[in-house]
Amino acid sequence: MVSALVISNNESFKINEISTNLTFADELIIVDHCDFDNNQSKSPVCTFLKSEQQQVELRILEAVELAKHPWIFIYYTNEHLPDGLKKEILSISNSNTSKTFAIKTDFIFMGRMIRFGTYNRHTSCRLFNKKTCKNILQVKSNSFLKNKLIDESYIGIDEFNIQITKKSIADADVLYKKNKRPTIYHLLLKPWFTFYKLYIFKWLFLQGREGFILAYYISFGTFKKYIYLWGKYRNLD
Predict the structure, then answer these.
(1) Cβ neighbourhood burial of 225 (10 Å; 0-12, 13-18, 19+)
(2) pLDDT per position as a tens digit, 113-125
(3) Which pLDDT belongs to residue 82?
(4) SS3 content of the chain, % helix, strand, coil (to 5)
(5) For 75-187, where are the alpha helices, taking DSSP H only?
(6) What b/e readout covers 120-138, taking b as 16+ CB neighbours within 10 angstroms?
(7) Residue 204: inside a domain, yes or no?
(8) Is the pLDDT of residue 35 over 80?
(9) pLDDT confidence of residue 59
(10) Contact between residue 125 and residue 101 where contact means Cβ atoms under 8 Å apart
(11) In whole angstroms, what is the distance from residue 233 CA to residue 197 CA?
């Protein structure tokens, strides 16, 4: 049996769509830092967890403790599961394997499939049995599922930029709570290093115009993260 942990970021308007996509799961736990109305979901197996944690990994730990079923599937609200992936998850959950699984992702940006960068090579654990995997944050997956997730985070360039801004703010909050202070290196050099790492060393230059724009927006997100952090220390937020 499978508990699906849905990591949300003030996205209650997607709940019913997500519930429909995750009908194979025996339990849905929606994790967010915002309040939810329990009537927002039509699914009888859906529960809500309001987490004060800004760090996604710590939200996941809270939800894992709450989950009723042994198999845990971690899902983000910008994703879509094809039928083949659903069947594969169910097949594994009915087996006796102790493996932990990552899932590759197909990401379409500005109408083009992104085959380079880091989007389709996530190694973080997304499917595991909590009875055999105790310290999930310290575990790397030791196998990939055959089927892929579809990343639907790109709706339009403005919406994509808003999502990057939300992530930058959340990351800045985490750094602030850890008493990390931005330096000239973080504000001026690290965004450029992020761009060159993605565009040159992660081969996004092979994606043409779309690869350049994607690397630019992600590196600008790095810059915004440290600008928000700088502002927090000066009470400018």
Answers:
(1) buried
(2) 888 876 555 557 8
(3) 92
(4) 45, 20, 35
(5) 83-93, 157-177, 184
(6) bebeebbbbbeeebeebee
(7) yes
(8) no
(9) 84
(10) yes
(11) 29
Q: What is the DSSP string of 24-40?
A: T-SEEEEEESS---GGG
Q: What is the pTM of this model?
A: 0.77
Q: Quick count: other Cβ atoms within 10 Å of Cβ 39?
A: 6
The predicted pLDDT at position 60 comes to: 85
Report the 10 Å Cβ neighbour count for 176: 18
Domain that holds residue 9: 2-151
Three-state SS at 197: helix
In the block, residue with structure tokens 């055959």: 146
Tell me the H-state helices in the chain.
15-21, 56-66, 83-93, 157-177, 184, 190-196, 208-232
pLDDT (0 to 100) of residue 196: 94
Of the candidates 99, 121, 151, which is a domain's last residue?
151
* Domain assignment present for 219: yes
Count: domains in the chain? 2
Question: Counting Cβ atoms within 10 Å, is residue 68 exposed (0-12), middle (13-18) or buried (19+)?
Answer: exposed
CA 80 → CA 76, 106, 148, 159, distances in Å? 9, 10, 9, 17
pLDDT tens, position by position, 176-208: 989 999 999 999 999 999 999 999 999 999 999
**2 φ/ψ angles, rounded to the nearest 5 degrees:** -120, 130
Cβ atoms of residues 212 and 204 within 8 Å: yes
* 216, amino acid identity: Y
Same domain (yes/no): 109, 200: no
Q: What is the mean pLDDT of residues 127-143?
A: 72
